[in-house]
Amino acid sequence: MSATEEILLASTDLEARRKIAHVLKEEGWDVTCASRVKDCRETLANRPVRMIFCDFRLSDGTYRDVLPFVRINHPKVPVVVMSRLADWDEYLDALRRGAFDLIASPSEPTDVLLAVSRALRDDRGKPPAIAAPASEHEPGTSRPLN
Questions:
Q1: Mind giving me the DSSP string for 78-123?
Q2: For the whole model, what pTM was predicted?
Q3: Domains of the chain as residue ranges with CATH
């Protein structure tokens, strides 16, 4: 990852923020932390952000206040919502509003890393295109296609 590969971590829970930031930094990410919707918008306006982890509630709003700004100004930046409740209805609501995923908070390191891996795949989770075979042979055989 280059120095511009940055993840925005928005949470009012200092301990959870510290743990998640540690996990992400160990993987080579630069992490910027915020606790308010206003801080998220300022960061997004001034720095290249590759991904966002956002608590359900922030000190001046919720993830629902962050998502519209991201969808309009940075539509390719995936947002993972973190929620203490993390129930099915909340999950579906977050996806309908444009979140990439919702994970439980406090989050396990493996959940955080899995969310990063899934969110940053090409085309939002679609596997990469399979390259054409190197030869002009029929797949699975050694004979030419002619």
A1: -EEEEESS--HHHHHHHHHTT-SEEEESSPPHHHHHHHHHHHTSTT
A2: 0.79
A3: 6-119 (3.40.50.2300)
Measured CA distances, 23 to 26, 43, 112, 114 (Å): 5, 21, 8, 12
Rounded Cα distance, 124 and 106, in Å = 24
Mean pLDDT of the chain: 84
- Residue-wise pLDDT for 11-32, tens only, equals 999 999 999 999 999 999 999 9
Consecutive H or E run containing 68: helix 63-73
Rounded Cα–Cα distance for residues 8 and 21 (Å): 9
3-state class (DSSP) for residue 74: coil
